[in-house]
Design brief:
With about 200 residues, the protein is of the alpha+beta class. It has a domain at about 40-175: NADH Oxidase (3-Layer(aba) Sandwich). Helices cover about 40% and strands about 15% of the residues. It has helices at about 1-10, 15-20, 30-35, 50-60, 80-90, 120-135, 150-155, 190; strands at about 70-75, 95-105, 110, 115, 140, 160-170. The strands form two sheets. It has a four-stranded antiparallel sheet, with helices on both faces. Helix 4 (about 50-60) packs across helix 6 (about 120-135) and helix 5 (about 80-90) packs antiparallel against helix 7 (about 150-155). The longest helix has 18 residues, at about 120-135. It is globular and about 45 Å long. The two termini are about 20 Å apart. Bound molecules: flavin mononucleotide.
């Protein structure tokens, strides 16, 4: 298991960079998951609507607590909204489009007295979308570095909507490459324990 992970982690960054921008191809899941990396420099090329639709569909079929599907996803494409996102986060990386992943108080499944599954559900949905994007050759970066209150104010979001993560997406710029962190995997023995 460890040896397998190490050999997968040894993929060169050049290979990873090339595959982010190539046409979609059939890959086994673990290869896709390993080669995906957080893109932090996007090109100006807009993503085709058919590909955006597929990414959204991959999110739609994701599991959520009691299948409550509390996600509310804004697809930011206009220069006006992108300018606002650039104001609330330094992590747009030149993207021309961004998913704003939120959950909705009205549909979220409660957890205990005061909690709910909103952040967990929203993150699972976004992970489906991130991996579908990778399969289509579209780069993404999950971004938690923003102030939700400021975002709600800027976009005038309803009170029931809670932003969880941003995900700028697009075709990777030619010089985009995985950060060194991408292949810094903790040993399985440290993170997994059979009990
Ligand atoms: C919940 C979450 C929040 C993240 N927030 C940010 C962020 O604000 N800015 C950023 O550049 N990357 C962010 N990332 C990306 C991680 O830094 C990245 O996934 C990690 O370093 C592993 O690298 P890789 O995605 O290239 O494999 C975030 C990832 C997750 C899962």
């Amino acid at each position: 298991m460890v040896a397998t992970l190490l050999s997968l982690a040894a993929c060169g960054s050049k290979t990873q960079q090339t595959q982010q921008t190539e046409e979609p191809m059939n890959k086994d899941f673990l290869t896709l998951a390993t080669e995906r990396y957080s893109v932090r420099h996007f090109s100006d090329t807009p993503v085709e609507q058919e590909k955006i639709d597929l990414i959204i569909e991959a999110g739609r079929v994701a599991p959520t607590a009691v299948n409550s599907q509390p996600q509310k996803i804004y697809v930011a494409k206009s220069p006006e909204v992108m300018a606002k996102l650039n104001k609330v986060s330094p992590c747009m990386y030149g993207a021309q489009q961004c998913f704003i992943m939120c959950y909705n108080d009205d549909t979220v499944c409660k957890r205990g007295e005061n909690g709910n599954y909103g952040e967990i559900d929203a993150t699972i949905v976004l992970t489906h979308m991130m991996l579908q994007a990778a399969e289509l050759g579209i780069g993404t970066c999950m971004v938690g570095y923003f102030k939700p209150d400021e975002l709600c104010r800027e976009l005038n979001l309803p009170e029931t909507i809670h932003p969880v993560l941003l995900m700028p997406f697009g075709y990777a710029a030619e010089d985009a490459a995985p950060s060194p962190k991408h292949t810094e995997y903790r040993p399985v023995e440290e993170t997994v324990e059979v009990i």
